[in-house]
Amino acid sequence: MSKPIVRFAPSPTGHIHIGNTRVALLNALYARREGGTFILRFDDTDVARSKQEYADSIQTDLNWLGIPPDIVVRQSDRFDLYDAAAERLKAVGRLYPCYETQEELEFRRKRQLARGLPPIYDRAALKLTEEDRARLEQEGRRPHWRFRLEPTTVVWDDLVRGPCHVDCSSLSDPVLVRGDGTYLYTLPSVVDDIELKITHVIRGEDHVTNTAVQIQIFEALGAAAPTFAHHSLLITASGEGLSKRLGHLSIKGLRDAGLEPQAVASLAVLVGSAEAVRPVADLGELAKLIDFSHISRAPAKFDESELDHLNARLIHEMPYEAVRERLAGLDADAGEAFWLAVRGNLPKVRDAADWAKVVRGPVTPAIEDMAFIQAATAALPEAPWDTTTWKAWTEAVKAATGVKGKALFMPLRLALTGLDHGPELGALLPLIGPERARARLSGQVA
């Protein structure tokens, strides 16, 4: 079996969201697992809406996710290929000119619906003579070009959906070239898939009907169609579809919010599959879990609260070396003991900076019962301190005061950290150290 060549083909008209990322990850990780090639193809034939800033953002997002492309191509550089393909289709009678306006087409559609007929294009343009076309063009009309579908049933074996078929006699001949000469998505996509030797087209199920049309275009151009896999789409927890235009769950937004790329990737790949959703820290391991036949056909909900939960679980297991540079950038690198002490309480890595401030100070202690705190101060063990110091100290305080349980631990936590929650003080106390601890227990900001 040849190694797969796959592509992720976003339009650089906005920031990609988690739904787009599901497509990118399934393609990239499948290629990685099988030793194949992952191509980033910018579908930027819509020159007016495509922006370089969005193309740059998409590449930044893919790099952040850990799936940089092996090859990057732009459709805007490849118009000669599309022009040549269009001419070939014209020469064999599969691409034909049409002159109807949008208003005329809408009128015909409504008339067909009123008659109980399917609202598909009636191919009236095929009946035009050369003289008819010349007259229409003299009137200032410019043709758009439709691909003439064969009235057959197109079948393919989908890796996700199994055997699929579409009756093309129920479809309108699709417009491939607009009246201004620009291309719609369909023809450039097929031409690129042929020229780039794409073996697998892995994309959302909203393209299923497109697939039948594209298979006919592949055949008309004398090429074999690739293998298709149409996976379920992601929707928000409230059931809405995702949209670049609305900014739903953009990768840029998730990154700026401090989420881990592995958490985003884990949920995007595993949700809506037979695999239990769980944090997978290694992309190679995540790639092994992809099984297209085990992806549900029902839309899968991407829940931000579940993402937060996965994110925290990842952080709680992260080794110090994995975050050392990031902690340094946050001015929160207080050593491995510090990281191991605080990571279990962190929803995001950047929150470690808050606990670094608690360790280093200044902290305003919260003290209500100074007599109890003074008794606790008197029982403080001598240096050096280690992870056994907290237990020894609290047992001594309990023996001296008779106070136990929460009534013992909470006042000490409030005095030492100014907070009523946080990491285990057995690990935190040695990091605070005797000097700062004594100052805070005396009510000083330290």
TrEMBL record:
Location in the cell: Cytoplasm
Gene Ontology molecular function: any one: tRNA binding
Enzyme Commission code(s) on record: 6.1.1.17
Chain ranges of the Glutamyl/glutaminyl-tRNA synthetase class Ib catalytic domain: 6-308
Broadest EC class assigned to this enzyme: ligase
Keywords, sorted A to Z: Aminoacyl-tRNA synthetase, ATP-binding, Cytoplasm, Ligase, Nucleotide-binding, Protein biosynthesis
Family annotation (InterPro entries): aa-tRNA-synth_I_cd-bd, aa-tRNA-synth_I_codon-bd_sub2, aa-tRNA-synth_I_CS, aa_tRNA-synth_I_cd-bd_sf, Glu-tRNA-ligase_bac/mito, Glu/Gln-tRNA-synth, Glu/Gln-tRNA-synth_Ib_cat-dom, GluQ/Sye
One term under GO cellular component: cytoplasm
Keyword Nucleus included in the entry's annotation: no
A Pfam short name: Anticodon_2
Classification via Gene3D superfamilies: 1.10.10.350, HUPs
UniProt binding sites for ATP: 244
Chief location of this protein within or outside the cell: cytoplasm
Motif 'KMSKS' region boundaries: 241-245
Domain Aminoacyl-tRNA synthetase class I anticodon-binding: 370-442
Top-level lineage group: Bacteria
Short motif ('HIGH' region): ranges: 10-20
Catalytic activity: tRNA(Glu) + L-glutamate + ATP = L-glutamyl-tRNA(Glu) + AMP + diphosphate
HAMAP family reported in the protein's UniProt record: Glu_tRNA_synth_type1
Family: Belongs to the class-I aminoacyl-tRNA synthetase family. Glutamate--tRNA ligase type 1 subfamily.
Subunit structure, as described in the record: Monomer.
Function: Catalyzes the attachment of glutamate to tRNA(Glu) in a two-step reaction: glutamate is first activated by ATP to form Glu-AMP and then transferred to the acceptor end of tRNA(Glu).
Designated name of the protein: Glutamate--tRNA ligase
Organism from which the protein derives: Microvirga lotononidis
